C-alpha cells in the first residue's frame, strides 16, 4: 500500500469516488458509488473486480451526503492501514470567472462557490456540499477543486461573448464551456495515441447523458458548444441544448411558467427523453421500433453535426475528430450518423472499424482522422490534486 488521494464527484442523489495510490504514477485501487441518497441508500465499493464493501439501507433512511461520505472515509482509512489519505479532489462543474484552474480549497472559498449555484443548478450545489461535508468530517484533510470550466479559459474573448449589453459580460454573463476535465484528459492522451493531432485542429465530442463538443487547436480550447450553463449546445439525455430565447418567453407567457418551471422542463424533461417520450438512454432508443425513438436519435445526430460545423469555422479547418464518454465510446450508430453528416468536411469512416469500436475508425483515405478515446476525468482530478499538494 501507499498514501492515497480520494476523488469525489457528488451529484443530487449520488456520489462517485475513486481511490488512487501515490506511487511513481497514480494507481487506481478502488472505485465506488453511493446512490439513491434520500431514498433507499446503497453504497458499493470495489477493489478491482472484487466487492470490498456493499451496504444497503431501507427506504427513506435518514442519511444524507455527509453520512455517506463518512462511511466512505471510514472504509478508506481502514483499507489504507498505516498509510494515509493525504488529500481529496473534487469535480466542480462551474468555476465562473474566479476559479481559472485547480484550486487548493479553504472554507472561505465556499462563499465564492455558492454564488455559482444558479449557473449550474443540477451540479454545483451538490459538488460544493461534498466539499463542505469534508471540511466538517476531516477538517485537516487538504481538498482540491477541479473545475470543468477551467480548460476553456483559453477561448478567445470573441468566443465567450453574448450579444447582450456590456454590463452583463462584466458581471460574468458569458460563454464558459464545460466538460473541461474530459477534454483536458483527451488532449493529454493525444501525444501517445495520435501525436500528429496533438498540435493540430481537432473536435472532441464528449457524448454522454450530458453532451458537448470542443474545438481544440494546438492543445487549447478555442470554442465549445456549451456556453453560459451546461444546458446549452447539443441535444442531451434530458436537456434540450440550444434553444431560441423566444421559446422561453412564449412558455412564460402562454403557459405561465416561472424560472423553476423552466428549469425543470429544460434540464429534466427535454432532450432525447422529451422528443422520444420513451427514454433518455440511447441504447433503449436504438432498440425501440417506435418512430419517435428514431426521430430523437436523428435530431441528436443532426444537431451534433450542425454544431460541429460551427466549430470547424472556429478552427479554420479540421484535422481530427475524437469521440469519448458513454455514447461517444460505445455507440457506433451515433458516431456513424454524425460523421455521415460531416462527410463534406473530409470525414470518411471505416464501417468495420467503427462497428468494432476500434481506437482508430477513419479510413486511410479520410482527410480527417477519427479516433475513439475513453475519457478519465477521475484521473485528471487525481493528477491535479497530487500536483497541488506537492507544491
Output the radius of gyration: 21 Å
Helical content, roughly? 25-40%
CATH-defined superfamily of the largest domain: ATPase, nucleotide binding domain
Taken from the alpha-carbon principal axes, the silhouette is globular
Summed up, the domain count is 2
Biggest β-sheet, characterized? 8 strands, mixed
Unreliable spans: none
In percent terms, what proportion of residues is strand?
15-25%
Biggest β-sheet: strands ordered side by side in the sheet: 5-4-3-2-1-6-8-7
CATH level-3 fold name of the largest domain: Nucleotidyltransferase, domain 5
Structural class: alpha/beta
Secondary structure tally, helices:
15
- State the total count of DSSP E strands: 13
H/E element string?
EEEEEHEEHHEHHHEEEHHHHHEHHHEH
Kindly provide the name of the CATH class of the largest domain.
Answer: Alpha Beta
Overall pLDDT score: 93
Label the CATH architecture of the largest domain: 2-Layer Sandwich
Task: Provide tags for this entry.
391 residues; eight-stranded mixed β-sheet; five-stranded mixed β-sheet; 15 helices; Nucleotidyltransferase, domain 5; alpha/beta; 21% strand; globular
Amino acid at each position: 500500500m501507499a498514501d492515497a488521494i480520494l476523488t469525489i464527484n457528488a451529484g443530487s442523489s449520488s456520489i462517485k469516488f475513486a481511490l488512487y495510490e501515490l506511487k511513481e504514477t497514480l494507481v487506481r485501487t478502488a472505485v465506488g458509488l453511493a446512490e439513491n441518497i434520500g431514498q433507499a441508500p446503497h453504497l458499493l465499493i470495489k477493489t478491482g473486480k472484487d466487492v470490498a464493501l456493499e451496504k444497503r439501507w431501507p427506504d427513506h433512511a435518514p442519511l444524507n451526503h455527509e453520512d455517506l461520505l463518512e462511511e466512505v472515509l471510514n472504509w478508506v482509512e481502514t483499507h489504507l492501514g498505516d498509510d494515509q489519505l493525504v488529500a481529496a479532489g473534487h469535480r466542480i462543474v462551474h468555476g465562473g470567472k474566479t476559479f481559472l484552474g485547480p484550486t487548493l480549497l479553504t472554507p472561505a472559498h465556499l462563499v465564492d462557490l455558492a454564488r455559482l449555484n444558479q449557473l449550474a443548478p443540477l451540479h454545483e450545489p451538490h459538488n460544493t456540499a461534498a466539499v463542505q461535508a469534508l471540511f466538517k468530517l476531516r477538517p485537516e484533510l487538504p481538498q482540491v477543486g477541479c473545475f470543468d470550466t477551467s480548460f476553456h479559459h483559453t477561448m478567445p474573448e470573441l468566443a465567450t461573448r453574448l450579444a447582450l449589453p456590456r454590463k452583463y459580460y462584466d458581471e460574468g454573463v458569458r460563454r464558459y464551456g464545460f466538460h473541461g476535465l474530459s477534454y483536458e484528459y483527451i488532449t493529454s492522451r493525444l501525444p501517445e495515441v495520435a501525436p500528429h493531432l496533438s498540435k493540430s485542429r481537432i473536435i472532441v465530442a464528449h457524448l454522454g447523458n450530458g453532451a458537448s463538443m470542443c474545438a481544440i487547436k494546438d492543445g487549447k480550447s478555442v470554442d465549445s458548444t456549451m456556453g453560459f450553463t451546461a444546458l446549452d449546445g447539443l441535444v442531451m439525455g434530458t436537456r434540450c441544448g440550444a434553444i431560441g430565447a423566444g421559446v422561453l418567453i412564449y412558455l412564460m407567457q402562454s403557459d405561465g411558467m416561472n424560472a423553476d418551471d423552466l428549469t425543470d422542463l429544460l434540464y429534466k424533461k427535454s432532450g432525447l427523453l422529451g422528443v422520444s417520450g420513451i427514454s433518455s438512454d440511447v441504447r433503449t432508443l436504438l432498440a425501440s421500433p417506435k418512430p419517435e425513438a428514431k426521430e430523437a436519435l436523428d435530431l441528436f445526430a443532426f444537431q451534433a453535426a450542425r454544431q460541429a460545423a460551427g466549430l470547424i469555422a472556429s478552427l479554420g479547418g479540421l484535422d481530427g475528430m475524437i469521440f469519448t464518454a458513454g455514447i461517444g465510446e460505445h455507440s457506433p450508430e451515433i458516431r456513424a450518423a454524425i460523421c455521415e453528416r460531416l462527410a463534406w468536411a473530409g470525414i470518411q469512416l471505416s464501417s468495420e472499424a467503427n462497428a468494432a469500436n476500434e481506437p482508430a475508425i477513419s479510413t486511410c483515405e479520410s482527410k480527417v482522422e477519427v479516433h475513439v478515446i475513453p475519457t478519465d476525468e477521475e484521473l485528471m482530478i487525481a493528477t491535479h490534486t497530487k500536483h497541488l499538494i506537492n507544491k
